């Protein structure tokens, strides 16, 4: 990474990051999620509108923020779900989406509209769980039966595409991609052994236990070290680092054990309090508005395909366990995507296999899903949200387990 932080640009980004939740708080019935305001704020202060900030000025922090997005998404996933009904249905739904995506992109490739067959097909199967977490948690959609199925569906829509992208589309060789997966697996084993050593007692156990809070914050610093090392593996935006951050989050959830509530509250404070908002503002600044405006029909086509290919299978897969309203919400939530689309288009641009207009249209469609679909899901859940507010406040940042 060869970018330097520009204080003036960082001030503009910090203003947007603070203004977004304040606006949501001042207008409680505003149907627009905070993430949308961060993206729009990034567009406004970016080089294509007001020119107050540039993506390059904050890219280092944005890369860490992207890592946090996937780390927190991985931390939210409980692998035991995939042995339960919610996980099994999520896996079935994703593979149905994959089959539909391959069929659709095959037709598009035959017409010459799509050049990069595999990246576009995988793009249609993704779910932006990391992007959705702040929205779902703020609106109380992670509680109860619906929350369990949404988390499992979102986990499948992020885990399987990330694995497929790392193996088949990574910037390194397929062997290197598989090696990186093995390295993360080894990391999980080492963390498991470290946890056993710490729990067995001794001086190290005492140091870690007493240093979890106040000024030492050992567990949080260890997590930050892990995340920064993963980000440092990439010269810039690098998919393998994203994969590592996601899987590291899964490993950390298991490793934390009884300390999980304390650690996750600290990760929320550092991630959602600073790095994650910077990433979303950065994403807004980095949007190529001219290319998106030049291919509006492609953008709308990809948007419709995301809803149809990734979302609509939920209507059948979750029949009998979720009501029609909840299945419709699942359609809207699972079809929402963005970070992986950015990664896919970056890979396509580097390799020269993706048409520039398709890259821009995919990112534009992803932004449109974030702007529209979660808002519709929240509107459908409005009676439930009002009931929660009437009952009283819940734990900030609470997760459904």
Automatic annotation (TrEMBL):
User: Where does the source fall among the domains of life?
Assistant: Bacteria
Compartments where found: Membrane
One Pfam family from the UniProt entry?
A: Na_H_Exchanger
- Keywords assigned by UniProt, alphabetized: Antiport, Ion transport, Membrane, Transmembrane, Transmembrane helix, Transport
The UniProt entry's GO biological process terms, in alphabetical order, are: proton transmembrane transport
Annotated transmembrane regions: 6-28, 35-54, 60-79, 91-110, 116-136, 148-169, 175-194, 215-233, 239-257, 269-287, 299-318, 330-347, 359-380
Domain named Cation/H+ exchanger transmembrane: which ranges? 16-375
Q: Which GO terms describe its cellular component?
A: membrane
Please give, as recorded in its UniProt entry, the membrane topology of this protein: Multi-pass membrane protein
Q: What is its main location?
A: membrane
| Entry GO MF terms | antiporter activity
InterPro entries (alphabetical): Cation/H_exchanger_TM, Na+/solute_symporter_sf
Keyword Transferase listed? The answer is: no
Keyword Transmembrane helix listed: yes
Q: Which family does it belong to?
A: Belongs to the monovalent cation:proton antiporter 2 (CPA2) transporter (TC 2.A.37) family.
State what protein this is by name. Kef-type K+ transport system membrane component KefB
Organism from which the protein derives:
Petropleomorpha daqingensis
